[in-house]
Amino acid sequence: MWEMLNDPNLRWILMGSILLGFGNGIVGTFSYLRKESLLGDVLAHAALPGICIAFMLSGVKSVGLFLVGAAAAALAAAALTNLISRRSRIKPDAAMGIVLSVFFAIGIVLLTRIQHGSYGNQSGLDKFLFGQAASMTMGDVYVLGGTALGMSLICGLLFKEFKLVSFDPAFGRGLGFKVTALEYALLTLVTVVVVTGIQAVGVVLVAALLITPSVAARYWTDRLAAMTVLSGAFGAASGAAGAWISSGVNQLPTGPISVLAATGLFLLSVLFGPKRGILSKLLLRRQAKRDWISKQLAKAGAGAPATQAGTANPAGERGASL
């Protein structure tokens, strides 16, 4: 860890991974509660054709142009998903699966055309599939830091509104809130964190870093505020673990290791989370069984003298009558 802090390049990777995980964890909480876990996957896979089109139109490998193209394609995929689910009888999860497959297939076709066409094989666009955190620079860290800070401020200012939209949007409409605008605001936040995380984690794995910390945090608390903070902390810890492990072992990518670290935190939460964890449930069941047995023994102990007294009185009455 000290070697990472002393090396400037490794320090940028560490800071970028922490900020990326924190931002994904904060925003992923509301996406998970709204049962839109697949939405992040849709946006991530839909970003690939946007990146390819941006390169084909400009002919320049510019991360800024790639992110603009990815954001435009992701928003188009989200709008198409919403249109399919509302204008047809197709359910939202099926619409997400259709849009994800179509956009990702288009991205693969365009990527293959770029690599085998006049654009050359050195475009480096294939790195966006699985990410390359090692290519992050100080400017990327500033972007991730600004994104994480902006996500935290927006979620803090609109916390009550996002909470209402996540649990009961119909009740929010009844109170006069602009639920549709709030839903689009959440969609925009998810798009931003997904697009900014593509460079480090890739389009294939960025959705996992968006949802897994939130699911892990759900096992530790029933309060949304605490869950949001825990989700951000779990995401940051996953990013730090991924950067640290990948820096110590050669040929290990940071993005997939960060996702595996988040999965490890999820498994620990499933096992040891209070009230919801497997171990906690086993202990509660054992305690409930002990309480039930003690109550039954107490009832049996209290009923024994009364039974003996009830059998002794008739014998005494018969003896007195004789």
From TrEMBL:
Q: Which domain of life is it from?
A: Bacteria
GO CC terms of this entry: ATP-binding cassette (ABC) transporter complex
GO annotation terms (biological process): cellular response to iron ion; response to zinc ion; transmembrane transport
**Which Pfam family, any one, appears in the UniProt record?**
ABC-3
Q: Which Gene3D superfamilies match?
A: ABC transporter involved in vitamin B12 uptake, BtuC
Keywords, in A-Z order: Cell membrane, Membrane, Transmembrane, Transmembrane helix, Transport
Residues passing through the membrane, by range: 12-33, 38-57, 63-83, 95-114, 184-212, 224-245, 257-274
Give the membrane topology. Answer: Multi-pass membrane protein
User: Could you tell me where this protein is found in the cell?
Assistant: Cell membrane
Q: Where is the composition biased (Low complexity)?
A: 301-316
| Principal subcellular localisation of the protein | membrane
* Family annotation (SUPFAM superfamilies): ABC transporter involved in vitamin B12 uptake, BtuC
The record's region (Disordered) falls at: 301-322
State the similarity comment.
Belongs to the ABC-3 integral membrane protein family.
Q: What does this protein do?
A: This protein is probably a component of a manganese permease, a binding protein-dependent, ATP-driven transport system.
What is the name listed in the Swiss-Prot or TrEMBL entry for this protein?
Answer: Manganese transport system membrane protein MntC
Q: Which organism is it from?
A: Cohnella thailandensis
